[in-house]
Task: inverse folding
């Protein structure tokens, strides 16, 4: 059976293909269109999936599964637009245009764009899509399931239980917290208040929280109040969730937290190196971030306990946008009632395409739960040889005119390249360069799904060099200095550097949990630590990513620890690079020193 | 010209669009009732009619600037 | 005509709240779109030298996009949120590659002319400097484009025909956009009236519904569009 999963319409459009119960391909549309969080119909992602499935045609697809119930969602959107009458005219007009014009007809769009008959289309409600997304790839026989995001149909948080029965998944709702009581929207509102882009830069709020003080925690606890049943209620007097055009926070909010941050108010905090000097007016932003982060963690723990009471399992599957909060995830793991936590590699909306397709397949074929699990390396792979040959003809004097702003051309610089006969020679060369303080792009194999670079589309440096990390932030990534980096470590060295329980190491495969680092190693990984000495590690096994594991090991033989600072291979404001040409573009324009494309190394020779 | 990626035959009958549109309308009404918003149904029906009218007008959008210029 | 439109926009529309930043966002999206199409075109070429020319061209457009990203942050006083236009292939795969490049370059020429007029119209400042750099870059390779089209295998006659066709198509698309803007205004007016009439009746029901502390209807199951 061939099942195509499709998600689009809000953010992170994506597609996936399941062939005979196995995930053969998945990708976000943004990787093909270079538009971050691209929400349009995923034409290119679908084309990729069909190609990867063996040049399938749409006629070969048995079922297309869509990740939303547009009819249910429209009902909530309309209600939300009318409730603030008479102050919501703009919201009503724009919502109605958007829904009546396009979004309500999503299933017809799927049918017509794919030229597929209506009887081959299925769909699920948004939170149920997340629930199957979380459960299907977990490998658990049974599990509690927690879904927390901005909003689905009528709910913002949903609790489920899942189990396998006769080779088929059974997922049942336990409880839903209704919109507008939304932890996701609260966090996004604070993100907007702090001057970041909501639905994109919540990680900045999370990073900033580490510099805050508990000044506003009680205030936020009152705004997002815990209820006796373990759920919560959001005081709507502080937010304009239903009426974004008037600004996402109200005057009641600004009376407590002050005016929103303006662009001119720079944040002087630094996750590494000498600390910046924060005025009291700027410090309040860090304090606000600290408060919302703390309270979100508390509410998540309370929800986990409520869920555990309803379904006393050892296992938790967690998905929805809020599950990207790796700091909260750490507390869930360390303090929560569940022994095992599975978060899918792409737990946001982009990953629902995989889960929904797997679910449909499993309902119609008997499946071993463990066979339904998948790794993150499902994206497109490219033959870089033609692009390498092209790059031989790229002249540095042409490139030097179009460097990233602020970079000066290197006089006499030449591009060099060498192709290695085998991966061992390649990793030896790259490991040597990393040790010598190069910034190296590592472009290998199939792209990862989800927001994390896990060793196939990564930029790497040695993890102890603070000056190098500064150069990486300034000359390559355009990254705010308060945002910490993270590192990847070979599985064999994980417990040496991470201060975690041995049974928790296996959850750290995909950079989903912030973890403390042992004080004995703070100097060794200083550039990849946050101010609280935590990091968001990738523990890399040879089984899951043999090439990257070899590089880590080769570097470790020289450095004394098989760990590298690993950041995503993307320019600021763009998705992670997908093709060798995009990788070469970023390499050429920025302060990167070298780029490994397959077995070929390209580097800048300044001599 | 702007084109989709090449169409692959998927076996969609010619009347599929009509079927899906009707189903969408009926299921929207059904969802409104499920959500205890039955009072919205006539209103949404009116919106559907309006959307249909605008769809027709939009189909002749090339003429819209001409029409507008007449007023 | 174009000069007058730009003058009117700069003098009367841009001072309105957020309009200038939105215009700059559009410029950034135009340049980023150019990069995307150049990369797609590049992948269809066999000659590595031609690919290298397009690659370098793409670096230039990327640099221009960065100019406008920085300008947006300066004038909009916030970081640029990603654009979200639906990308589409310009031509089917069986059309010659040079046609895509011709289309992209017509678009570039139009954008360059617009940027030149803008540069001459606006006051001194960051955006004027950015536009100055962009225009200087674009003016530098007008002749290069034509020679590259010839190297891609197009005859002069074919190039002229295709460029003419592209210009007609762009005019037509502009006309369609005008039509859609008219429809959009009409829809806004109608929906505003509808809002005040129906909202007065239904808003209490809406508020009551949103104030519920539970979600009773369980919509959590897979459904088929046609049962």
Result:
């Amino acid at each position: 059976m061939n099942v195509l999963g499709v998600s689009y319409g809000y953010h992170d459009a994506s597609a996936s293909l399941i062939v005979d119960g196995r995930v053969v391909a998945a990708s976000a549309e943004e990787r093909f269109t270079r538009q971050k969080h691209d929400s349009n119909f995923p034409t290119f992602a679908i084309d990729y999936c069909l190609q990867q499935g063996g040049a399938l045609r749409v006629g070969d697809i048995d079922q297309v599964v869509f990740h939303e119930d547009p009819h249910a969602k429209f009902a909530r959107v309309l209600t939300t637009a009318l409730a603030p009458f008479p102050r919501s005219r703009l919201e009503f007009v724009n919502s109605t245009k958007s829904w009546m014009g396009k979004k309500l007809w999503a299933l017809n769009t799927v049918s017509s764009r794919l030229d597929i008959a209506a009887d081959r289309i299925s769909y699920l409600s948004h939170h149920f899509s997340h629930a199957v997304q979380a459960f299907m790839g977990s490998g658990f026989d049974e599990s509690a399931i927690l879904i927390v995001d901005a909003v689905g149909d009528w709910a913002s948080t949903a609790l489920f239980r899942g189990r396998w029965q006769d080779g088929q998944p059974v997922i049942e709702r336990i409880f839903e917290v209704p919109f507008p009581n939304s932890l996701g929207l609260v966090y996004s509102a604070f993100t907007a208040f702090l001057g970041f882009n909501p639905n994109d830069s919540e990680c900045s709020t999370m990073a900033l929280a580490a510099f805050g003080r508990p000044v506003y925690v009680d205030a936020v606890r009152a705004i997002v109040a815990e209820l006796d049943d373990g759920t919560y209620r959001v005081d709507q007097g502080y937010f304009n969730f239903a009426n974004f055009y008037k600004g996402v926070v109200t005057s009641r909010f600004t009376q407590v937290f002050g005016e929103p941050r303006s662009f001119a108010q720079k944040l002087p905090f630094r996750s590494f190196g000498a600390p910046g000097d924060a005025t009291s007016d700027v410090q309040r932003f860090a304090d606000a971030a600290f408060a919302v982060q703390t309270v979100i963690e508390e509410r998540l723990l309370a929800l986990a306990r409520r869920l555990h009471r309803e379904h006393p399992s050892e296992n938790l599957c967690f998905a929805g946008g809020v599950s990207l909060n790796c700091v909260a995830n750490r507390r869930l793991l360390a303090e929560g009632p569940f022994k095992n936590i599975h978060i899918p590699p792409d737990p946001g909306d982009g990953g629902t395409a995989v889960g929904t397709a797997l679910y449909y397949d499993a309902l119609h074929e008997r499946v071993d739960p463990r066979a339904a699990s998948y790794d993150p390396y499902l994206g497109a792979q490219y033959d870089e040889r033609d692009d390498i040959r092209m790059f031989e003809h790229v002249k540095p004097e042409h490139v030097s005119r179009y460097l990233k702003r602020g970079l000066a051309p290197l006089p006499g610089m030449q591009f060099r390249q060498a192709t290695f006969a085998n991966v061992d020679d390649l990793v030896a060369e790259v490991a040597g360069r990393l040790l010598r303080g190069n910034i190296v792009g590592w472009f290998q194999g199939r792209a990862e799904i989800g927001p994390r670079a896990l060793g196939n589309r990564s930029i790497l440096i040695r993890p102890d060099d603070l000056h190098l990390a500064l150069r990486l932030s300034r000359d390559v990534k355009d990254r705010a200095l308060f945002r910490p980096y993270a590192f990847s470590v070979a599985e064999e060295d994980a417990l040496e550097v991470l201060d975690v329980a041995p049974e928790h190491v296996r959850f750290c495969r995909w950079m989903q949990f912030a973890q403390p680092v042992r004080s004995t190693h703070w100097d060794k990984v200083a550039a990849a630590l946050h101010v609280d000495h935590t990091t968001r590690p990738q523990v890399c096994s040879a089984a899951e990513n043999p090439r990257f594991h070899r590089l880590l090991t080769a570097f470790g033989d020289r450095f004394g620890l098989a760990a590298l600072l690993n950041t995503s291979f993307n320019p600021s404001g763009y998705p992670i690079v997908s093709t060798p040409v995009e990788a070469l573009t970023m390499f050429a324009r920025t302060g990167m020193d070298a780029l490994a494309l397959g077995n070929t190394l390209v580097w800048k020779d300044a001599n | 010209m702007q084109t989709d990626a090449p169409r692959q035959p998927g076996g969609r009958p010619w009347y599929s669009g009509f079927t899906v549109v009707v189903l969408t309308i009926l299921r929207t009404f059904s969802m409104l009732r499920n959500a205890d918003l039955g009072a919205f149904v006539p209103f949404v029906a009116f919106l559907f009619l309006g959307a249909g009218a605008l769809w027709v007008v939009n189909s002749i959008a090339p003429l819209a600037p001409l029409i507008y210029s007449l007023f | 005509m174009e000069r007058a439109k730009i003058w009117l926009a700069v003098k009367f529309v841009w001072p309105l709240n957020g309009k200038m930043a939105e215009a700059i966002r559009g410029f950034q999206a135009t340049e980023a779109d150019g990069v995307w199409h150049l990369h797609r075109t590049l992948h269809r070429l066999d000659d590595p030298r031609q690919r290298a020319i397009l690659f370098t061209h793409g670096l230039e457009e990327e640099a221009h996009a960065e100019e406008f990203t920085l300008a947006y942050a300066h004038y909009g006083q916030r970081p640029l949120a990603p654009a979200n236009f639906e990308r589409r292939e310009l031509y089917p795969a069986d059309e010659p590659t040079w046609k895509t490049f011709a289309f992209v370059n017509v678009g570039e020429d139009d954008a360059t002319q617009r940027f030149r007029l803008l540069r001459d119209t606006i006051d001194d400042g960051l955006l004027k400097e950015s536009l100055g750099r962009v225009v200087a870059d674009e003016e530098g390779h007008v002749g290069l484009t034509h020679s590259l089209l010839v190297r891609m295998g197009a005859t002069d006659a074919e190039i002229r025909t295709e460029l003419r066709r592209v210009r007609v198509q762009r005019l037509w698309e502009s006309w369609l956009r005008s039509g859609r803007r008219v429809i959009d205004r009409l829809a806004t007016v109608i929906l505003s009236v509808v809002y005040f009439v129906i909202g007065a009746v239904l808003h209490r029901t809406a508020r009551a519904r949103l104030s519920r502390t539970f979600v009773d209807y369980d919509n959590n199951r897979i459904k088929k569009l046609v049962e």
